[in-house]
TrEMBL record:
Pfam families: Aldo_ket_red. Residues 24-292 form the NADP-dependent oxidoreductase domain. This is Aryl-alcohol dehydrogenase-like predicted oxidoreductase. SUPFAM superfamilies: NAD(P)-linked oxidoreductase (SSF51430). It comes from the Bacteria. It comes from Quadrisphaera granulorum. The keyword Iron does not apply. Keywords: Oxidoreductase.
């Protein structure tokens, strides 16, 4: 099991070239009552859990295990996900990095509407500061680019807050190489958070570009590998060879993919959390990496 005491420098990335984080983080999105009815069905991420006790236990256990990067967003449960993190962990450990995202409206449980008006982005940062009970947000990522406003204006709003000391690092989500480079002409970009996992590799070129640029690549849905987890698959075979879970193999593949990849698996289970954080200790040999790297969903 990976703990703060057993982590090594190989497990660490310098976010923005200065902020050290262990590479397996935690995505807090799932710590919600997804449908508002207690079923956890769907992905509406609309309300905080009616009874937050289990979510608090998961967050506190994550920190105990040495997790240093927590990912949330103002759009998760209309800000209640941020407030939950504060309730569980404030005052924060000095080495904890909380990443949040701004730039999405949630007018209903099924709607995610990008809004990049600079004034709105500034307002959401201010609300994030309140909900997370801090004077500076460690990492603020633009949740989605809004085509209604120039990219430079959207990123510029976050750059202005960075200059004011309210934001330490600026990041992006679901962008292209060209959009990343346009943003970097406005302000330093510390991270990019795009959809990527063993079964979803459309952002290979961006991942490699981020490596060259020293930008962290944070793959969301790192465990959503679908049919690749089926019995008899390469993932299943490698897991059996190593005495590991298929989720651990999927995470380990991401960690082996490049040193700037920071997966943020989410879960509502302490047991699964412990399994996920232990993936950092799973060594894949060249043959296993080759089999995993060339397999594709049928």
């Amino acid at each position: 099991m990976t703990t703060a005491a057993t982590a090594t420098p190989d497990d660490v990335f310098l976010l923005g070239g200065e902020t050290s984080v262990r590479r397996v983080g935690f995505g807090a999105m799932r710590l919600t009552d997804a449908t508002g009815d207690g079923t956890q069905a769907g992905a509406r991420i609309w309300r905080a859990p009616a009874d937050p006790a289990d979510a608090v236990l998961v967050l506190r256990r994550a920190v105990e295990l040495g997790v240093q990067l927590l990912d949330t967003a103002d759009a998760y449960a209309l800000g209640e996900n941020e407030a939950l993190i504060a309730a569980a962990l404030h005052p924060y450990p000095e080495d904890l990095v909380i990443a949040t995202k701004v730039g999405h409206l949630r007018p209903s449980p099924t709607e995610w509407v990008p809004l990049g008006h600079p004034a709105y982005l500034r307002q959401q940062v201010e609300l994030g500061l309140r909900r997370l009970r801090t004077e500076t947000l460690d990492l603020v990522q633009l949740h989605r680019l809004d085509p209604a406003y120039p990219l430079a204006d959207q990123v510029g709003a976050l750059a202005e807050l960075r200059e004011q000391g309210k934001v330490r690092h600026v990041g992006l989500s679901e962008v292209t190489v060209e959009e990343l480079e346009e943003a970097r002409r406005v302000t330093p970009i510390a991270s990019v958070q795009n959809h990527y996992n063993l079964a979803e590799r459309h952002h290979e070129a961006l991942l490699d570009h981020c490596l060259d640029a020293g930008v962290a690549f944070i793959p969301f849905f790192p465990l959503a590998i679908g049919d690749l987890a089926r019995p008899g698959s390469a993932v299943d075979a490698v897991a059996a060879e190593l005495g590991a879970t298929r989720s651990q193999v999927a995470l380990s593949w991401l960690l082996h993919r490049a040193p700037h990849v920071l997966p943020i698996p989410g879960t509502t289970s302490v047991t699964h959390l412990e399994e996920n954080t232990a993936a950092v200790r799973l060594a894949l040999n060249d043959d296993q990496l080759q089999r995993l790297g060339t397999t594709l969903a049928p």
